[in-house]
Each structure stands twice: as C-alpha cells, then as structure tokens.
Amino acid sequence: MFKRTALPIPASIDADAFWSRVQPTGFCWNWTGAKGAGYGVIGHKGKQYRAHRVAYTLLVGVIPDGLDIDHLCRNTKCVNPDHLEPVETKVNTLRGFGAHARNARKTYCDSGHEFNDKNVRMIEGRRVCIECARSYHREYERDRYRSDRERFAAKARERRAANREEYNRQARERRARKKAEAA
Question: Per-residue pLDDT averaged across 8-13, rounded?
C-alpha cells in the first residue's frame, strides 16, 4: 500500500513572512498568498509547501508519516490549526465531497433499492445492487434470445426462398404423410 511521505517542513521558513499572508476572518484563517489546486502554497528555497501543512507544523508539531491534513472546515485556504486534523488518506477522501465520498454515503441504488447485507454484492471493490443486476441479466437474456430467434428465422427464410421448389415438395410430402397416418 502507498504511504504518503510529505516533504518535511524546513525550520528555516520565515514565520513572520508566512503569517503576514494569513488573514483571520473570525472563524477561518485564510491564506492570501499564492495558491495551487485551491490550496495555499508557499515557496522556500526552490520548493513549494502547502500552507496548511506549514501552519500545522509551526503551531502543533510534525505531521505523522502517512497522514494527510484534513480541513475540518472544508475551506482549502484555511490555515487555522484548530480546523486541521491529521488523518489517513481514506478518511480524508470519504469526508470530502468528491465522487468517492458521495457514492460511499449512498444508502440506495439509482433504482431505489436499499443497500443492505442481503441486496449488495462487492465486485472489484464496488457495491452492486443484486436486484438491479438480476433485472439487467433478465433483460439481457430476453434480448439475446429474441435476437437469436430473429436471426434463425431470417436464415430459415433465406433458405426457403433459395430452395422454394424443394421446400414446397418437402411440405407436400409431410402433408401426405400426416394424412396417411391419420387415415
């Protein structure tokens, strides 16, 4: 499994210059400096560091290896250490608003069937509604059977048209046999 190892925050970062780019708003402390991918960033000796990670390191301490810093306030520009918590990547992802988090919070499938132990099967790491899978399979088989039947019927029509005389002769013989058996 991949373990995140962030660049250690150097002690030589100028704290006064860092805090001069922070604007307290009463609740969040917003980063007003440079931003990258929605997060505050600060450059130091040719490298970039995320502002919230620097703030956490300066005010709380070293971020444990393998952990992300989660913004509890959901404001990616916030550097208030009271709003930052070191957590595993999975926890951080599931707390968010991305597709993985939204799907993990769902309790019903798109057709309205409840996700529970009896109605869910895990396939390649994702939940599959058993009722929907059965319905899909029934429709697939019905359509496949219908298309097979239609294909066979079309081939039969082609054969009959190509050999109409032979087919008519065979049909007359069948009728004559049935008549003889009935008598």
Answer: 82
| Same domain assignment for residues 21 and 78 | yes
- CA–chain centroid gap for 182, Å, is 68
Q: How many C-beta neighbours within 10 Å does residue 25 have?
A: 10
For 122, residues 6+ apart whose C-beta sits below 8 A from its C-beta are 128
pTM, full prediction: 0.64
DSSP 9: P
Q: How far apart are CA 73 and CA 84, in angstroms?
A: 8
Name the domain count of the chain.
2
Q: Which domain holds residue 159?
A: 106-183
CB 59 within 8 A of CB 81: yes
Question: For 91-106, what is each residue's pLDDT tens digit?
Answer: 999 999 888 899 888 9
